[in-house]
């Protein structure tokens, strides 16, 4: 849209700064490869005034973060299952190789500890 000599920026439906703001909102997070004059640094197209929560969300949205998180979770679950297997080996059941759920293992452990306390008290 061309301006006539008598028309000012304020007569337009939006001012130049509004157009720049809209463009910057679209390009949030983009960085140009052009260094700033004399500083040798890259400049950001938009100021990164993100909240701590928004930064955390963006960091967690990356494939690298999700992959690392999935790996940590697998290790945690594996350690959890090993601990249940070790506890299961210490509990007497008939037959000894009977498959028990985690909640059954915990309940049986509670009962077995109570029984052992009772035996020690007698």
From TrEMBL:
Keyword Oxidoreductase among record annotations: no
Matching entries from CDD domains are given as:
bHLH_TS_HEN1
* SMART domains, per the entry: HLH
- According to the record, the residues making up region (Disordered) are 32-68
Xref: Pfam families: HLH
Q: Which UniProt keywords apply?
A: DNA-binding, Transcription, Transcription regulation
Give the transmembrane region(s). none
InterPro entries per UniProt: bHLH_dom, HLH_DNA-bd_sf, TAL-like
Question: Which protein, by its recorded name, is this?
Answer: BHLH domain-containing protein
What organism does the record attribute this protein to?
Cirrhinus molitorella
Higher taxonomy: Eukaryota, Metazoa, Chordata, Craniata, Vertebrata
